[in-house]
Amino acid sequence: MKQLIRHIALFFFLFLPLVAFAQGSPDDEKAALERWRQMSPQEKQELRERYERWKSLAPDEKSQLRKKLETWQKLQPQEKTAVRKNFQRWRNLTPEQQERLRQRWQRWREMPPERREVLKQRFEKLRQLPPEERRQLLEKFKERQRLSPEQKNNLRKQLREKQRPQKARE
Questions:
Q1: What is residue 24's three-state secondary structure?
Q2: CB 54 within 8 Å of CB 14
Q3: pLDDT mean across residues, the chain
Q4: Are the C-beta atoms of residues 11 and 65 closer than 8 Å to each other?
Q5: Residue 15, Cβ density class (10 Å: 0-12 exposed, 13-18 middle, ≥19 buried)
Q6: Which of 73, 97, 84, 67 minimizes the C-alpha distance to 20?
Q7: pLDDT at 157 > cutoff 90
Q8: Which of 39, 40, 101, 136 has the fewest CB atoms below 10 angstroms from its CB?
Q9: Which of 76, 68, 94 is nearest to 3 (CA)?
């Protein structure tokens, strides 16, 4: 996950500014040159540093970033907006929140595909519920989160026992 985030960050902060200059038409190059002239010395230095980081990347990392750029260029404007928004939300998280999200993402990736599919279906059902029902479920969830581990285990056992007769009938 850390590598994915690193690549996204590299893409946004390193690669995109260079692409506008490198792939442009003569008019784009003139516009890029004008933007360069209008940059502050600090901005110019930052761009130089980005370029140096780009040059120092391993060929496979450059290749991965180029593929990401191709994918980016194929996105619709609303999809690009959503990606930017999500990236900004990520940057606004505290380091602890980012780490928790990384761990959750890692657990998700390690899950068997069947388990992920079941969770996706549950999430979709949840999204389709009316707001009041979703609120009630969230309250129940919060109540269960406050239970001790022993109480949670007892609740799980009760749920399994309820499900056994249903499975036997099927």
A1: coil
A2: yes
A3: 83
A4: yes
A5: buried
A6: 73
A7: no
A8: 40
A9: 68
**Integer CA distances (angstroms), 56 to 14, 34, 170, in order:** 12, 27, 62
The CB density around residue 10, as the number of other CB atoms within 10 Å, is 20
Residue 127's domain spans which residues?
Answer: 2-169
| CA dist., res. 153 & res. 47, Å (int) | 56
Going by pLDDT thresholds of 50, 70 and 90, the confidence category of residue 12 is: low
Torsion of CA 48, 74, 5, 20, to 10 degrees: 10
Q: Is the pLDDT of residue 25 over 80?
A: no
**pLDDT band (50, 70, 90) for residue 21:** very low
